[in-house]
Specification:
The protein is α+β, with helices and mostly antiparallel strands. The protein has one domain (about 1-165): Nuclear Transport Factor 2, Chain: A (Roll). Helix content is about 15%, strand content about 50%. The strands form 2 sheets. The chain has a 4-stranded antiparallel beta sheet, with no helix packed on it. Strand 5 and strand 6 (about 110-120) form a beta hairpin. The protein is globular, with a radius of gyration of 18 Å.
Length: about 180
């Protein structure tokens, strides 16, 4: 966090949505700040950067006991349903034994949040990466707003693409 604050000293966080159930709280947030210092080897650009995220927190004794965080460093428009369909088809082709399991969920009013884990073996080309035969595991989080007879009218999601690309050997963690 210190490295982030140093690179983006004017960072502002806004909680866009927050729901809770029992000892769990899920927050959807947006952060904006000006890139004024080096970050992960990237020299300052002077540009405003927007980051979106979803955080699942488990509370005990009024304090955060466990936390899972998913964020998207390049916030932009939500993909259309056809783009999502093509993306899932590419995942199924690259990871034919792909499994997605729900790890956690909460509901409050017309909103629901889910934390899920995906795993699979890289047996087909994915994002231009030749099959490695390696297993990957990645976490994702989604928040939906439901209306009427269960129709999803709003959706926000985060998926650990960077973690998956690290496991595939495409990118390497910063030194």
């Amino acid at each position: 966090m210190a490295a982030y604050r140093s690179a983006f000293p004017d960072t502002r966080f806004v909680v866009d949505d927050q729901i809770s159930e029992g000892d769990k709280v899920v927050s959807r947030w947006t952060a904006r700040g000006t890139h004024r210092g080096e970050f992960l080897g990237i020299p300052p650009t002077g540009e405003e950067v927007t980051v979106t995220g979803i955080e699942f927190d488990h509370l005990a004794g009024g304090k955060i006991e466990e936390s899972w965080l998913g964020y998207h460093p390049f916030a932009g428009p939500v993909p259309d349903p056809e783009s999502l369909r093509r993306g899932f088809a590419a995942l199924r082709k690259a990871f034919p034994d792909m499994r997605i399991a729900e790890a956690d969920n909460i509901r409050e009013g017309d909103m629901a949040a889910f934390r899920w884990l995906m795993s699979g073996t890289h047996k087909g080309e994915f994002l231009g990466v030749a099959p490695t035969g390696g297993r990957i595991e990645a976490m994702g989080m989604d928040i939906v707003r439901v209306a009427g007879e269960g129709e999803i009218v709003e959706h926000w999601g985060e998926f650990d693409v960077m973690g998956m690309l690290r496991q595939l050997g495409v990118i390497h963690p910063p030194k």
